[in-house]
């Protein structure tokens, strides 16, 4: 009985421990000697004080958790607890993916030099992601989709705003005058960190980059539970268009690429069905609690409108599409896609790496049947410059978390 009573008052012990750990808010009881009697008495009187002084972080110890005598743990309650644990797991996975993203981008930021082939940049980034996630050899992984690259590394230059990554044999070289968007995806249990920035060597583009960086930060500030998507677009547009950039003697008002947008992210699905506009578009859809969003904005010196063009590199399995029975030669390729990527986006280089050969005809067939979606490069008008900044945010009940935020951007 007395032993149990001692157990029951354990939180008081915790309290003393906690206050000692968190910075000696309470005087520790150091001595029981008689010479200290006066002081001891004074101290115990002082122990009765506003409890927030004992718990400066306002995190109080939980009581003892006991089951009900009757089996009152309802199925609904069990589902609630399981849901809660799933969310904590997702958030932790997102933090892991984001920490890897920060390390991968710091590594490449320290190596970028004019005259580097885009192929080398892609390989440096993707090899680092593979190493950090333990996904170096998909073929020997027990679960090749458990973690790794979240989507192909976007390395889009100048008028190309998004979805360029080199295919095999590509000889494109990064030049001093280029405006490069680097878009990196890292996934842990399908939870994708989607985060991008724009790299330039020449300071003449600085105002363009500032416009887009500030526009993205505005989108992040406006985002929240029950916020209408159109209102986020309107705020982004206002900030973006408030900037001018002078390049080679010509002044441009920075325009948002109005047909590009951010998006929600659900496990193994880079585009969860909601689009976050970067102009006022009237979409009354609201953001909701627990959603993950990629907030990305694109600014341009061109029309502010992108069109697909150039050789395609990015693809993703369409999870909903019915698989027709006569896929022929494409069936083997589809099995590889399902095994190694599922619904995660992939690029031709990743198929090459798996040892797939002469797959292009089959891949095109899968695209034509709607089983795979192609994501060709997206380009503003020739001669224009586009910039992008992107972060992934998590809508917790009481706060939002810019999970991919780093010291760089
Ligand atoms: C598609 C394919 C990929 C999603 C946005 C994006 C890079 O433009 C609705 C809104 C990777 C991503 C995506 F391989 N796209 N974020 N980062 N691209 S999107 C889109 O197709 S669909 C935006
Ligand atoms: Mn992205
Ligand atoms: Mn995105």
Descriptive account of the structure:
It is a single chain. By secondary structure, this protein is α+β, with helices and mostly antiparallel strands. It folds into 2 domains: 88-306 and 385-402, Creatinase/methionine aminopeptidase superfamily (Creatine Amidinohydrolase); 314-375, Winged helix-like DNA-binding domain superfamily/Winged helix DNA-binding domain (Arc Repressor Mutant, subunit A), CATH 1.10.10. Helix content is 33%, strand content 22%. The chain has 10 helices and 17 strands. The protein has helices spanning 2-8, 10-21, 37-46, 75-109, 118-133, 206-222, 229-241, 330-340, 348-353, 360-369; strands at 147-157, 160-162, 179-188, 191-200, 244-247, 250-253, 255-256, 261-265, 275-277, 292-300, 307-308, 314-317, 346-347, 372-375, 378-379, 386-395, 400-402. The strands form 5 sheets. Strands 7, 8, 9, 10, 16 and 17 form a 6-stranded antiparallel sheet that branches. Strands 1-3-4 form a 3-stranded antiparallel sheet. Helix 4 crosses helix 5 (118-133). The radius of gyration is 27 Å and the shape is globular. 35% of the residues are buried. Mean pLDDT is 90; it is low at 1-41. Residues 194, 263, 294, 296, 390 line the site of one manganese (II) ion (MN).
């Amino acid at each position: 009985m007395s032993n149990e009573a001692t157990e029951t008052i354990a939180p008081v012990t915790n309290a003393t421990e906690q206050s000692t750990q968190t910075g000696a808010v309470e005087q520790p009881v150091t001595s029981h000697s008689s010479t200290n009697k006066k002081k001891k008495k004074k101290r115990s009187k002082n122990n009765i004080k506003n409890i927030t002084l004992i718990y400066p972080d306002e995190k109080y110890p939980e009581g003892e958790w006991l089951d009900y005598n009757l089996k009152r743990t309802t199925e609904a309650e069990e589902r609630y607890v399981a849901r809660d644990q799933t969310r904590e797991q997702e958030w932790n996975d997102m933090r892991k993916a984001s920490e890897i993203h920060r390390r991968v981008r710091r590594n490449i930021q320290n190596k970028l030099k004019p005259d580097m082939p885009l192929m080398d940049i892609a390989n440096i980034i993707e090899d680092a992601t593979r190493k950090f996630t333990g996904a170096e050899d998909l073929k020997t992984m027990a679960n090749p989709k458990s973690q790794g690259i979240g989507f192909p590394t976007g390395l889009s230059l100048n008028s190309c705003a998004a979805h360029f990554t080199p295919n095999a044999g590509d000889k494109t070289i990064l030049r001093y005058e280029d405006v490069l968007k680097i878009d990196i995806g890292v996934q842990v249990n399908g939870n994708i960190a989607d985060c991008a920035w724009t790299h330039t060597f020449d300071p003449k583009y600085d105002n363009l980059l500032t416009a887009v960086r500030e526009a993205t930060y505005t989108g992040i500030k406006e985002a929240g539970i029950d916020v209408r998507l159109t209102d986020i677009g309107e705020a982004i547009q206002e900030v973006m268009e408030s900037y001018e950039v002078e390049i080679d003697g010509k002044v441009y008002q920075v325009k948002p690429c109005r047909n590009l947008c951010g998006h929600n992210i659900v496990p193994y699905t880079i585009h969860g069905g909601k689009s976050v506009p970067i102009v006022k578009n009237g979409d009354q859809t609201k953001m909701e609690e627990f959603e993950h969003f990629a907030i990305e904005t694109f600014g341009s010196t061109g029309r502010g409108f992108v069109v697909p063009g150039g050789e395609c590199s990015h693809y993703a399995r369409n999870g909903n599409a019915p698989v027709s029975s006569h896929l022929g030669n494409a069936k083997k390729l589809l099995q590889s896609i399902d095994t190694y990527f599922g619904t995660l986006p992939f690029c031709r280089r990743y198929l090459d790496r798996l040892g797939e050969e002469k797959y292009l005809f089959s891949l095109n067939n899968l695209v034509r049947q709607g089983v795979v979606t192609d994501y060709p490069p997206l380009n503003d008008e020739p001669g224009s410059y586009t910039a992008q900044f992107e972060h992934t945010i998590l809508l917790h009940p009481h706060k939002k978390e810019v999970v991919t935020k780093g010291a760089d951007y």
